[in-house]
Specification:
Blueprint (H helix, E strand, L loop, with lengths): L8 H9 L5 H19 L2 E4 L10 E4 L26 H8 L4 E5 L33 H8 L5 E6 L5 H7 L2 E4 L19 E6 L2 H11 L28 E5 L1 H4 L5 H16 L3 E5 L2 H22 L17 H12 L2 H14 L5 H24 L2 E5 L15 H5 L6 H5 L4 E9 L2 E9 L4 H15 L10
Parallel strand pairs: 2-3, 2-4, 7-8, 7-9
Antiparallel strand pairs: 1-3, 4-6, 5-6, 5-10, 9-11, 10-11
Helix pairs in contact: 4-5, 6-15, 9-11, 9-12
Length: 468
């Protein structure tokens, strides 16, 4: 029998290459596991019964266009939309022989930190189904953590790969902006969106990143990788300089258990030979959130203007074109997209553009310089990934500002376009805690080496205790 809770993607690849199991058998095992556990977790919006390819099966977040498979971005306004083409990342996964297990649940248009904004209902955390799995990519994180997929792809705008990976006990990578194509991805904020892998181990994440990364002629923002992706083997951090932002120690809202887990992880890094020091990111922590929540909604208001009931999804019939568009958007968009569209449209309006969006972009430049200066002194920056462990479903749904604060640690490096890696650092109150490592631009290999060494030393059991 295939233990879908324990097997890694690398293990599965070895089994396939040695002839011990077929890709179709693996795919069937994960679909069967979803049949057993997904009613409770709601990680998937739809499953794919057929298995095309001879590689390790994969789950894809439902913002990733897949030819012939409904892609809704978690929104009613795209209900029934079936793409006639594959996104670049989906095409590269298929070219590597990976059959698609299914499309995973997401906050609507990837807007959220808990997956509660999905028009199709929230996903649940495999460690405790009464709690959120994080967001917006909570469906992918829950699928990997709950043994419903060996690995998956998510999208990250302000932390939507790293934060749910932290809350579900997975490894998750937000790559350097521009190293993975956005062609065929349902757009949220184009200068921030990035596709990245979620898996059980750092080596699995590195392997999947090597498959999806690289220049794409369909996306002018992409670049060739300056060096080949390495599968890490080192278990030492000798000579690695890790900076801890001094603002972390004074930041309100970090739970005591999260702080303790972070401190223990840093001491583990020190014991492995790392040099630990303090760096200073005052603008990032003072203005990062405000900067993000002007830039991201502004870009969202532009990107979501295409949903008018004419070209995509369902349409509400009305006497005039204007009424049809208004009523279709009112019925199709949920509260969070409406909130961000209104905020973004206001920030871009005549008389306010320079004061809000323009000013936020200037602040973003300062954040980029601030991170660059810190990474001239250190090889990596470390923080907790999320200030809290997974919180109860419904706990923050009525308080958007409290929900936005979930990404306070992940947003600054996303604004700077830098790669970030989450690895599990332990448990607090029986729930996973994540450690965030931030690297220099194109510094994924350094993240993989450090993450692998820490992963081996921490020896976190990724299987939820209730499912062991």
């Amino acid at each position: 029998m295939i233990d879908t809770l324990r097997i890694t993607a690398e293990d599965a690849l070895v089994l396939i290459e040695s002839g011990q199991v077929s890709s179709a058998e693996l795919h069937a095992a994960y679909v069967a596991a979803a049949g057993e556990r997904d009613e409770e977790l709601h990680a998937y919006l739809r499953l794919c019964d057929h298995a095309d390819g001879g590689g390790v099966p994969i789950a894809l977040k439902d913002v990733i266009s897949t030819k012939g498979i409904e892609t809704t971005a978690g929104s009613k306004i795209l209900a029934g939309y079936v793409p006639v083409f594959d996104s670049t990342v989906a095409a590269r996964c298929k070219a590597a022989g990976m059959p698609i297990i299914g499309k995973t649940n997401t906050d609507e248009f990837a807007m959220g930190s808990s997956t509660e904004n999905s028009a199709y209902g929230p996903s649940h955390n495999p460690w405790d189904p009464t709690r959120v799995p994080g967001g917006s990519g909570g469906g992918t994180a829950a699928a990997v953590s709950g043994g419903l997929a060996p690995w998956g792809l998510g999208s990250d705008t302000g932390g939507s790969i790293k934060q749910p990976s932290a809350l579900c006990g997975n490894v998750g990578l937000r790559p350097t902006y521009g190293t993975v194509s956005r062609f065929g991805i349902v757009a949220f904020a184009s200068s921030l969106d990035q596709i990245g892998p979620v898996a059980k181990t750092v080596r699995d994440v590195a392997l999947l990143y090597s498959i999806i990364a690289g220049r794409d002629v369909n996306d002018s923002t992409t670049v060739e990788l300056p060096e080949a992706v390495e599968l890490p083997t080192t278990e030492s951090l000798t000579g690695v300089r890790i900076g801890i932002p001094k603002q972390v120690w004074d930041l309100a809202g970090i739970e005591p258990g999260v702080r303790t887990s972070f401190e223990t992880a840093i001491e583990t890094a020190r014991s492995l030979g790392a040099e630990i020091g303090e760096c200073d990111l005052p603008l990032s922590f003072d203005y990062g959130m405000a900067c993000y929540y002007l830039i991201a909604p502004a870009e969202a208001s532009s990107n979501l203007a295409r949903y008018d009931g004419v070209r995509y999804g369902p349409r509400v019939d009305a006497p005039t074109y204007r009424e049809m568009v208004e009523q279709t958007r009112d019925a199709g968009f949920g509260d969070e997209p409406k909130r961000r569209i209104m905020l973004g449209t206001y920030a871009l309006s005549a008389g306010y553009y320079d004061a809000y969006y323009g000013q936020a972009q200037r602040v973003r430049t300062l954040l980029i310089r601030e991170h660059r200066a810190a990474l001239e002194q250190f090889d990596l920056i470390a923080t907790p990934t999320s200030p809290t462990v997974a919180f109860p479903i419904g706990d923050r749904a009525a308080d958007p500002l409290a929900m936005y604060a979930c990404d306070v640690m992940t947003i600054p490096s996303c604004l700077a376009g830098l790669p970030g890696l989450n690895i599990p650092s332990g448990l607090s109150e029986g729930l996973p805690v994540g450690l965030q490592l931030i690297g220099s631009q194109f510094g994924e290999n350094a993240l993989f080496r450090a993450g692998h060494a820490l992963e081996r030393a921490i020896d976190f059991d990724t299987v939820p205790e209730r499912l062991r």
